[in-house]
Amino acid sequence: MSSIVLCSLGNSNANNNDTNNNNEEEETFPIPTIYRCRAPIASLDCMEEFQTNEHLTQGTPQTKQELLQNLAQQTPLTAPNHGPLVTRQSSVTPGLRYRNLGKSGLRVSNVGLGTWVTFGSGVTEEQAEEVIQLAYDSGINVFDLSEAYSGVRAELELGRILQRRGWKRSSYIVTTKIYWNTKSDERGLSRKHVIESVRASLARLQLGYIDVVIVHKADPMCPMEEVVRAMNHVISQGWAMYWGTARWTPVEVMEAYTNCRQFNCVTPISEQSEYHMFCREKTELYMPELYNKIGVGLMAWSPLTMGLVSGKLEDGGVPLFARSSFKNKYSSFSWTEDETQAANKEGYTWLKERLQPEETRRQQDKLRDISQLADKLGCTVSQLAIAWCLKNESVQCLLLGATSVEQLYESIQSLQLVPKLNTNTMNELERILDNKPIRPPMVSTLALR
């Protein structure tokens, strides 16, 4: 049994002295030990909101120059026998939020860094490291890779950067993709290729595990049972924490989920899908249904249509394009293998040849109206395109690409534009785009008889 007069958050010794000195003046009463000064525990949501507000009011960089100066002045801390140890800065970009990916417990930032162009040709390793550093300091915790991006360079360089920076492993999320390979006979989703690809990625990244392994395109030549069993094995071995898909049709995602349930395997938690102002059908019609029914979240990519948005329409830059101009059976949901290879080898000049003149003219007119609306909002067309994607609540993580810190900084500022896209602004954008997807009507098989 013990006595108590006042519960205080101050020094315990001081409280004891005060109690001893005032024993004669104040009446004390005994209480059981189990009831001693137990403060209520704040919920995680409350703590997150409190921290976010603090970040918005204290120490958020106001200009690009200040942010870049902070980046240059950082010096890594050292820990005995553990190499460099760097903690994340206390300032988080306004508008940055963390959400659960799918219906899993994995918390991801609402914008992530897609490294296709970051580790592409013409970008040095020093420039790429500056982009990675800026993303991390801004609060971004998702870094998306693929063995198809610049061969194996992306994974090798990111692995070296992570080792040099010494960031706490729990503070960032690495997603990498499997399926592609430089040799045609070493691609696909066989159990052999899946396991070999994941282990090779771990070696290149110099990591103990990959947070999310993304299956980059479904394999029509491999049974779905083999794919889901292979992914389940990868997770059970501790090589990965979760798995997801990229550029799969809704039917393929449902088939994978059904097989997972049938064979008691770990289900996918996310689908990476293309999403921008001129590609909306899959993301807006089918992904919300997949999330509600089977818990598959959405990571959107290409908000700027693979970087083809030109800030100045008179520059002759390639406009945003619609997938309807691509006459192949995967036109609604993904790129074909030939398109991906052409993009890696020839840049994006091949797209100009596929754009129909009439369609190009219509999209130029739409972009001109969008540019005028962006001027009224005080932003660029690129920033408006990114903010428009983030306005969709189904997008849990939007992957941005950047070849320089200036480009990434400009894209991150789009987060502050999202609250300005009110109902009137969104209606105006819908009027300009005039391409809101509509689910086709149900057709009864009885009516065909």
Strand order of the largest sheet: 7-8-9-10-11-12-13-14
What's the number of extended β-strand segments? 14
What characterizes the major β-sheet?
8 strands, parallel, barrel
State the order of secondary-structure elements, H for helix, E for strand.
EHEHHEEEEEHEHEHEHEHEHEHHHHEHH
Notable traits:
globular, 449 residues, disordered N terminus, 15 helices, two-stranded antiparallel ribbon, eight-stranded parallel beta barrel, alpha/beta, 13% strand
Tell me about this structure.
The chain has 449 residues and is α/β, with parallel strands linked by helices. It is 40% helix and 13% strand. The chain has 15 helices and 14 strands. It has helices at 12-21, 44-57, 64-73, 125-137, 153-165, 191-205, 224-236, 250-262, 281-294, 337-346, 349-354, 357-377, 381-390, 405-412, 423-433, and strands spanning 2-4, 29-31, 77-79, 83-85, 98-100, 107-109, 111-114, 142-144, 173-178, 210-216, 240-246, 270-274, 297-301, 397-400. The strands form four sheets. An eight-stranded parallel barrel has the order 7-8-9-10-11-12-13-14, surrounded by five helices. It has a two-stranded antiparallel ribbon with strand order 1-2. β11 (240-246), α8 (250-262) and β12 form a beta-alpha-beta unit. The radius of gyration is 26 Å and the shape is globular. The N and C termini lie far apart (85 Å). Residues 1-62, 74-87 and 310-351 have low confidence and may be disordered.
